[in-house]
Amino acid sequence: MSVSARQPAPPIVGLHFNDIVGLDLARQALLFLAVDPSLAGVALAAVTGSGKSTLARAFAALLPDNAPFVELPLNVTEDRLIGGLDLEATLARGERVVEPGLLARAHGGVLYIDAVNLLDAGVAAHVMDAMARGVVQIERDGVSAVYPARFSLIATFDPGDGAVNGSLLDRVGLIIPFAPQGDAAIRAEVVRRNMRRNMRRNMRRAGDGDNADEDAMLRALIELAREQLPQVGIREEQVEALTRAALSLGVEGNRADVFAVKTALASAALAGRTDVSEADLEIAARLVLIPRATRSPQPAQAEQPPQPASTPAPHPEQPDPTDAQADQTQTQTPEQIEELLMSAVEADLPADLSSLPFAAQRRGRTGSRGVALNDLRGRFVRAVPGPLRGHKIALLPTLLSAAPWQSLRAAADDKSPAAPSRSAPVVRITRDDIRVKRFRDKAGALFIFLVDASGSMALNRMREAKGAAIRLLQNAYIHRDQVALIAFRGQAAQMLLPPSQSVDRAKRELDALPTGGGTPLASALWLAWQTVRQARSRGIQQATLILLTDGRANVPLRPHEPAVDKDRIVQEVRQLARAIAADRLNAIVVDTQAGYLSRGEARTLAADLNARYVYLPNAKAHQITEVIAS
Q1: Which residue segments constitute the domains of the chain, with CATH numbers given?
Q2: What pLDDT, on a 0 to 100 scale, did the predictor assign at position 301?
Q3: 287/245 Cα distance (integer angstroms)
Q4: Residues 13-28: pLDDT tens digits?
Q5: CB neighbours of 381 closer than 8 A, spacing ≥ 6?
Q6: Beta carbons of 282 and 345 less than 8 angstroms apart
Q7: How much is the pLDDT for 281?
Q8: Which one in 197, 316, 350, 411 has a CA-CA gap of 20 to 30 Å to 20?
Q9: What is the DSSP code (8-state) at residue 479?
């Protein structure tokens, strides 16, 4: 099997690496990565327009000769990412020719992803797998191949667009957390440098030689630091101080400890030192530990050292102050080094840790709804064999499937006496070659309100449920969530609002809120359960039932059958609730009954549903929404 590989063209860099203003910490992290690629990568959080993408692309000029800089587009397909058949070469040669993907092309260099928080989960999984194993394995379209893929990852993102995949972020050694820039002097300097750049461009790029000289100087500095790195030493006390600081900050896993030590060594090498200093430890904590913090450090109770009985007389010859300071540094304990380290970087630790990525992910996110595969819409992720009816043909995979057989089919056609003469090349495709598209789409979640519309409190319950439904719909678009509302009154439950993402539709269809009559709770549970099953067939796997009720029922599931006693109605509701719980449906029971009238029916219903029980006798829309969000 032959292999076709092409090196990507180097990126066009509009600004020099040192021209970007306001990203000094990010620039320092990139230099550390250049000195020690085993730091795995740099993740940079900054607002749109801050220059983060320009800085990342300018970094390409500092890479060693022939080191690739590969930019990964967000809409990359799986075959483009990991590799596959080269259609043109395969058709021309009549044999399968493999083309490496972008991950393999980044081997020995840098893979750059802008807006990494918008990256598809499947693509992120392939990137993480390549970073962990150092290879890319192709098993698709009848092709089996393995390519080396050891690269450094540079990822930039705007936190306002959402969080980054935590597992991907954990594999990156250096993280520059988001820091709003409100310095007028920095903004003015950005404008001045932009004007100078435009002036140089109008003068036929008169300053390009200066930029080339600066690039050469930085590359030489990086090369010297790489040679210096094996000679740099770090003491056991310093290593222990870094690990103790990581524990104090709630940093999880040992990978961060290793990254912190490597960062301190790279910092010392870049400064031309052979020993790690306190400044190196501080920058390591700032770039590795603080962004991974999940809690604020607790002040330790320092133990007072025992006081000597007498103070010895000083030596008549006073030592040199520099030597004394070095001796003092050498004799510091890990606790003392940690205390100095945390004191130096505590200004970088935000008062609200929710701005740090790992602290937010540890609390959990409600925005991740999962994905669903379907045949007609979403993001194209793969091609599979299948009939054309009800699907979209994947033209390129179909041609790739047919390409290896063209010479055999052509020979068979030539032997056929009925074969017509052809002057132009013909691609021969059979039914077995057909490939159809499979798409991945955001699945979203379904929230179904079940509202008791009987009794004196019915109108208030219906109004507040409508308000809560509209509140959820106002935030539903980004997650593809849907909301439905079922009212149960009289003889049966009624679907007032079918699953929808439209706020206008909810307002329109929920204008009339019928109330009064019996309480057919079993009918409401059955209707909600069937609605969830239909949603699952459309790819929505997450559903939550929100019941606003006192838990009492007085109408059976089949009201037209002969008279049913109250105990049987209660048992019918309990059996149905337990069946729903066995189906692993999330549920919340909001008890709206006044305490002095309640006999615990809503709490019993919550137990049968394996649901969360909340007592809100005067439930308001915002309270219901907060319960769902929590």
Answers
A1: 2-198 (3.40.50.300), 229-297+331-349 (1.10.8.80), 373-416+427-441 (no CATH), 444-629 (3.40.50.410)
A2: 46
A3: 13
A4: 445 677 676 788 999 9
A5: 77, 78, 120, 122, 373, 438, 439, 440
A6: yes
A7: 94
A8: 350
A9: G
Helices 208-228 and 24-35: crossing angle in degrees, nearest 10, is 50
pLDDT above 70 as % of the chain:
74
pTM of the model: 0.59
How far apart, in whole angstroms, are the C-alpha atoms of residue 163 and residue 603?
Answer: 37
Q: Is 378 left (phi over 0), alpha (psi -120 to 50) or beta?
A: left
pLDDT at 72 over 90: yes
Average pLDDT for residues 220-225, to the nearest whole number? Answer: 94
What span, in angstroms and rounded, lies between the C-alpha atoms of 601 and 580?
A: 17
| CB 161 within 8 Å of CB 155 | no
What would the two tokens of residue 625 be?
């929404």
pLDDT tens readout for residues 567-581: 888 888 999 999 998
Q: Is the pLDDT of residue 117 over 90?
A: no
Residue 42 pLDDT: 95
DSSP 597: T
Amino acid identity, position 471: R
Average pLDDT estimate for 19-41: 89
C-alpha distance from residue 546 to each of 44, 61, 429, 452, 602 (Å): 40, 57, 53, 11, 12
Question: Scanning the structure block, which residue is given the tokens 């006081």?
Answer: 307
| Catalytically active residues, by annotation | 255
Select from 460, 464, 500, 495 the least CA-distant residue to 625. Answer: 464
Ramachandran angles phi, psi of 534, nearest 5°: -65, -40
In the chain, % helix, strand, coil (3-state, to 5) comes to 45, 15, 35
The runs of H, that is alpha helices, within 249-353 are: 255-270, 278-284, 321-330, 334-345
Q: CB atoms < 10 A from the CB of 581, how many? A: 16
- How confident is residue 201, by pLDDT bands cut at 50, 70 and 90? low
Rg for the chain (alpha carbons), in Å? 33
Q: Are 128 and 438 in contact (CB under 8 A)?
A: no
DSSP 179-241: -----HHHHHHHHHHHHHHHHHHHTTSTTHHHHHHHHHHHHHHHHHHHHHGGG-B--HHHHHH
Q: Would you say 171 and 132 are in contact if contact means Cβ atoms under 8 Å apart? A: yes
pLDDT at 113: 95
> Would you place residue 555 in the very low, low, confident or very high pLDDT band (cuts 50, 70, 90)?
confident
